Backbone:
C-alpha cells in the first residue's frame, strides 16, 4: 500500500490535489486530527490491500496547536516501520494573496489581520513538513490540468520527480518583461518574420514561422547553447532548494521568434524531464486582439 501525506500552504491547491488522488483510487481523509494519524495508518496498513490499495491523509494548519505534535507522530510511524511519502503544495506569497482575494475566504491564521501576515505564520508552522517533503509542487503558474498531470506522473505512473517546476514563457518586450521571470533571454537579434508579408499574420506555432526562424544557423546555435546552459543550471537550482523556475524568452511582440525558441527549448528539456515543465505564450495573441 502507498500512503501519502498531503500538506502545504492554504490556497496552494491541497484540496484539489486530494480530489485528484481520490479520482486515482486513493482512499482520502482530509483534516484528520493529529491524534488519530497513527491509528489511521495502522488500520489501513493492517488492511493489506483488501479494501484500500492506496491512501492519502490531508494535514494542514487547521489542526491548530496540535500540528506541533505531528513531527513526533511521523517519527514514531517511521520507528514502527511504516512507510509514507509527503507531498507539499506551495505557491509564492503574491499568488496566495490573490487567490484568497478572488475566493473572499479568510486565511486560517490571519484572524482579523492581513492575509499576508497569516501566510508568513503558516510558512513558519509548516517549515518542518516542507523540509521533510518527498515532493514539492509549486502551483504558482500551474493550471488545474497541469497539476493533475504532475500528480499522475508521481502517484499513478510512479515516475521520477525532482521537486522542480519549470515554466518556459515567451513574451513581447513591448508589453513588458514578466515580473516573475528568473531568467530572461532576448532573441531580437534573429531575423524577424514580421517583415515577411506571408508570415506576418502567423505565429511561432505555425510551421512557416517556425521553419523560417530555425533554418537560420544563428538560431540553431543559440538553441544549442541555451539548452546546454539550462541543463547545467537546472540541477544546480534544484540542489539549492529552488522549486519554481521561470525561463522567459522575449522578442519584440511575443508572437514569432520568442514563441519559436520557447517551443524549441521546451521540447528539448521535456525530452529528458525528471521535473515538471510547462510552456506558455503570454503575448502571442495580443496584436490580433488589438486589430479587432
Residues:
Amino acid at each position: 500500500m502507498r500512503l501519502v501525506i498531503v500538506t502545504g500552504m492554504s490556497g496552494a491547491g491541497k484540496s484539489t490535489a486530494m480530489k485528484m488522488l481520490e479520482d486515482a483510487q486513493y482512499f482520502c481523509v482530509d483534516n484528520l486530527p493529529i491524534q488519530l494519524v497513527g491509528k489511521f495508518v495502522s488500520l489501513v496498513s493492517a488492511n493489506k490491500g483488501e479494501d484500500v490499495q492506496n491512501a492519502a491523509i490531508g494535514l494542514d494548519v487547521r489542526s491548530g496547536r496540535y500540528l506541533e505534535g505531528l513531527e513526533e507522530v511521523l517519527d514514531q510511524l517511521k520507528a514502527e516501520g511504516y512507510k509514507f511519502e509527503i507531498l507539499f503544495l506551495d505557491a509564492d506569497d503574491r499568488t496566495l494573496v490573490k487567490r484568497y482575494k478572488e475566493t473572499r475566504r479568510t486565511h486560517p491564521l490571519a484572524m482579523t489581520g492581513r492575509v499576508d501576515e497569516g501566510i508568513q505564520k503558516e510558512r513558519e508552522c509548516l517549515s518542518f513538513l516542507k523540509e521533510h517533503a518527498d515532493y514539492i509542487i509549486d502551483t504558482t503558474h500551474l493550471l488545474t490540468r497541469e497539476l493533475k498531470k504532475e500528480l499522475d506522473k508521481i502517484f499513478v505512473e510512479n515516475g521520477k520527480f525532482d521537486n522542480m517546476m519549470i515554466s518556459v514563457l515567451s513574451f513581447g518586450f513591448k508589453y513588458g518583461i514578466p515580473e516573475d521571470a528568473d531568467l530572461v533571454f532576448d532573441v531580437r537579434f534573429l531575423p524577424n518574420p514580421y517583415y515577411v508579408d506571408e508570415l506576418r499574420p502567423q505565429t511561432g506555432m505555425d510551421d512557416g514561422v517556425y521553419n523560417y526562424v530555425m533554418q537560420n544557423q544563428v538560431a540553431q546555435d543559440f538553441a544549442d547553447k541555451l539548452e546546454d546552459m539550462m541543463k547545467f543550471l537546472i540541477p544546480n537550482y534544484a540542489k539549492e532548494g529552488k522549486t519554481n523556475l521561470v525561463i522567459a524568452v522575449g522578442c519584440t511582440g511575443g508572437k514569432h521568434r520568442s514563441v519559436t525558441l520557447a517551443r524549441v527549448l521546451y521540447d528539448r528539456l521535456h525530452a529528458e524531464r525528471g521535473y515538471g515543465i510547462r510552456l506558455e505564450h503570454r503575448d502571442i495573441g495580443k496584436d490580433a486582439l488589438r486589430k479587432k
In short: The first strand starts at residue 2 and ends at 8.
